[in-house]
Amino acid sequence: MPQFYCRKVKRLLTMGLNRVKTCPNIESFPKLMIIQQTVFRIAKANELDTVIALQTSASGQKSEGKLVQELVSSETTTLSLLAEFRCEIIGHVLLSQIQAPIKAVALAPLAVLAPYREMQIGSELVRYAIKLAREKGYQAIFVLGDTNYYERFGFSGSLANNFECPWQGRNFMAKELAENALKDQSGALTYPKAFLEIE
Ligand SMILES: CC(C)(COP(=O)(O)OP(=O)(O)OC[C@H]1O[C@@H](n2cnc3c(N)ncnc32)[C@H](O)[C@@H]1OP(=O)(O)O)[C@@H](O)C(=O)NCCC(=O)NCCS
Distance, CA 118 to ligand 1 centroid (Å)? Predict the structure, then answer.
């Protein structure tokens, strides 16, 4: 086949793939069906740009996308987790290893695209993050966020009180991933530099 036709066929195939990737108008889908059909998985390296765009758009702040970009591109050990509905990435959460008296990660940022909110996508991402962190041998997760949201997953301010970091306060929480993992533990938490540069 001449090279020209090869290129044309390739382009048509790519267009076809792109068409498959375009999700239909979600308003026509029942919420329950969306969560049932959403896949939760680890992000691939070539999905970083999509994740950054999602974090920026969902939070309305460039800093969240920048945080993900810097953490994932740095030497920090991260776990980047996605929610995907019909080939569209609709939610994301990042876990980053921090230096702590126990083996721990920070959960941040968490975001779900606006049209997909209030469907339990964010909750499932948090539960998935908790499960994977436990499987990877982490003993605790720290988070800075809304207590009404995170307490439902077992995060607690009192568990974080004994640890020193720049975010200490009412909205700083921890969750144990093993029984009594934080009992009698205290000390400094050192976050990757990118966290300290958030505007
Ligand atoms: C926060 C966020 C991830 C929640 O995602 P979601 O998929 O809509 O959440 P879920 O459907 O799993 O949970 C919905 C519940 O969380 C509550 N909730 C949603 N956003 C909340 C927030 N920012 N603070 C406190 N509670 C919140 C809802 O009121 C609802 O409560 P209910 O179950 O008692 O009715 C999403 O709103 C988002 O991306 N926001 C912009 C980014 C952001 O603020 N991230 C920081 C997270 S602390």
Answer: 7
